[in-house]
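## retry 2 of 3
previous attempt timed out at serialization; input unchanged, resubmitting
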Amino acid sequence: MKFHFVKTNMRIATAWVFVIMACGPASTSRDTAGPREIVTARRQLDDHVEECTKRYGYDPEAGSKLESNVLGPGEREWRGCVYQGIEKYLIPKTQSPDLYRRAIAEDRKMTEAIAKGEMTRMQRQARVQQMLKEIDQMEEANQAKHEIDRLEMEMRQDMMRRSLSPLLR
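## retry succeeded, writing output
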């Protein structure tokens, strides 16, 4: 009887994790890609990016109007400001800080390559989109693992309570 209970609850827990993964993090919005702390950190980063835009006068949306291998006025400083925001808001909240740091390092190299005429803005944009997708996938995996661990702990606690309940009678 106990084995059936554990097996049934494990199936329910596993199904719940898949529902969470399918309904939440798979969204195209990065705001649903992780635990509540990551969502909050990403909102803070969005606000920080707006401040960077005001401070340095660089509008990343206007980048499409520039030549393909030229940096815009204030672009390098703007990107540096964004990197600082990632370091301040996202990296302390993630379980995969190295992934963010590698993305920053790669973006710096690509930005320098654009300045030297060795890479186009479109190539960098494609790679940045790929890195964001990888980060989202890692955050989703981290969230799923965290949820599985939490559910397993709840099941263990429930089993312990049930095994001790005869002693409370």
